[in-house]
Amino acid sequence: MSLRGGICGVDESGRGPLAGPVYAAAVILPGNVVIEGLADSKTLPAVRREALAIEIRSRAAAWAVASASVAEIDALNILRASLLAMQRAVEGLGVAPRRVVVDGLHCPELACPVRAIVRGDASVAAISAASILAKVARDAAMMELHLRYPQYGFDCHKGYATELHLAALRAHGACAVHRRSFAPVRLMLESGTLFPPD
Fold it and tell me: Which CATH architecture fits 7-139?
């Protein structure tokens, strides 16, 4: 798909993890800009993502990153919180896109036309760029949370339900940045494993 200037790509990062905010990014690429190596952020090594993020931020016509908090995820559900983060990212651009293309099946509520594209992060340059910015921002946020809660290993798994993370939950209980609405955390709370003090 060919994207002209004024068309905004949007994607999120962090729907699946048991902890931390969900992030979204919005990117408008000028029609004459080609960034080599754009792809679904999940397929790229971290070092490559970070290098591409620098190039995207320097060459995009506009870009923005936003998030929805753990409290919002638990109050709204993860899908609605993801759409809220996407809406905030588009609104944070500082310019009004002519239309928006979003990775996946669901569209945020926006003031301009918006279309969801399945696997758009692998086929549409602006969505790939947004995927990379969202992933880099969320990974950085999880590294910061690791400094506050080193016992959970957020620097390794970024909040996903790996065996390391589940073992840490069993050993330490859940902390304030765990998503209480997600089953492994919810079941611990129901079994009496309380949140430790911060």
Answer: 2-Layer Sandwich (3.30)
